[in-house]
Amino acid sequence: MSIIKEIESIILEAEEALSKAQSEEELDTNKNNFIGKKGKLTQVLKGLASLSVEEKKTVGKLANEAQVKIESIVESKRNKIKEEFYEVKLKSEFFDVLRTEEPKEKGSLHPISQIQYEIEDIFTSMGFSIMDGPEVETDENNFGALNFTEDHPARDMQDTFYTKDGNLLRTHTSAIQVRALRNLKPPFRIIAPGRVFRYEEVDASHENTFYQVEGMVVGEGISIAHLIYTMETLLSRVFRKEVKTRLRPGYFPFVEPGFELDINCLVCEGKGCSVCKQSGWLELLPCGLVHPNVLSHAGLDPKKWSGFAFGLGLDRLVMMRYNIHDIRYFQSGNLRFLKQF
Ligand code: DAH
After folding, report:
1. Domain Aminoacyl-transfer RNA synthetases class-II family profile, which positions (predicted)?
2. CB of 227 closer than 6 A to ligand 1?
3. For residue 280, how far is its CA from the centre of ligand 1 (angstroms)?
4. Is 256 marked within a binding site?
5. I need a labelling partner for 21 at 20 to 30 A (CA). Which of 6, 28, 185, 209 fits?
6. pLDDT, tens digit, for every residue of 279-302?
7. pLDDT averaged over every residue in the chain
8. pLDDT digits (tens, 9 = 90+) for 320-329
9. Residue 21 Cβ contacting ligand 1 at under 6 Å
10. Residue 219 pLDDT > 70, yes or no?
11. Domain range annotation of the chain
12. Can you name the CATH fold of 111-338?
């Protein structure tokens, strides 16, 4: 019977068309093409009227089954399309919350900052506070209050950068001593790290910009013994071995007596080598007892109060630690140099 064949071929056609559908819209269009109001199967069934009762039964049953079959194909295809849709969506939107950033190139602290922070830790563990001051200073703070006379050679244009308004770029962190003496009530212990400036011809051992840490302790009965103990503690921790020191006389207007502190040569342990020019000692830092004029200038009675001060050059310290022969590397911004630290 041709109508039965027609129904069978509609089923085959529907199966094929539905299996190709890519989206739910396509699926629904196809569904309508076969079992919608104007669908192929519906059209065929219109011809049913001309059939006998027996035939109507057989064909009607077949048509029903066809309808159910096509519907079930549509639904299973619909599920498949949905599954695929979510699979693609999940894959494209997936991210691993535990995954960390691809490693980028990492920077590091400048070796001078590193040693500065180390020194700050050492001193704070000994009860020192950290003080700061401006890089542009008054002549009074940088020189006057530190007992530099008006005609002292350090004030010379050759050493100092002056600003147009009569101030200057501080030539040493000792300027912060003056601020400490003016602002703190003794007894006190401070260090003051900072950048300093000199009008220098730049070469392997001279820079116009470099770094110091100033230290100052003021109290009653502060003596050279306190100074030596503090310096030996500091240096043994910085160099990670026991460091011996010796004091030689040195002149700075703001200390009396003033010293150059030497340490036993770290390379030959004092036996004599090319680094210490066979002397067994390395000149490391200037220091001394705070000059009575500096104390009384700040309104402190030198008979009651005494103190020590020192000035540590950070560039030199880093150069010694890493065996660096040219101070100009520090400000060069040279990455091949900086990446080593
Ligand atoms: N301020 C001096 C300089 O830069 C270094 C110095 C010497 C600091 C003796 C001190 C000191 O505190 O007591 O050259």
Report:
1. 113-340
2. no
3. 24
4. yes
5. 6
6. 999 999 999 999 999 999 999 999
7. 92
8. 889 899 999 9
9. no
10. yes
11. 3-92, 111-338
12. BirA Bifunctional Protein; domain 2 (3.30.930)
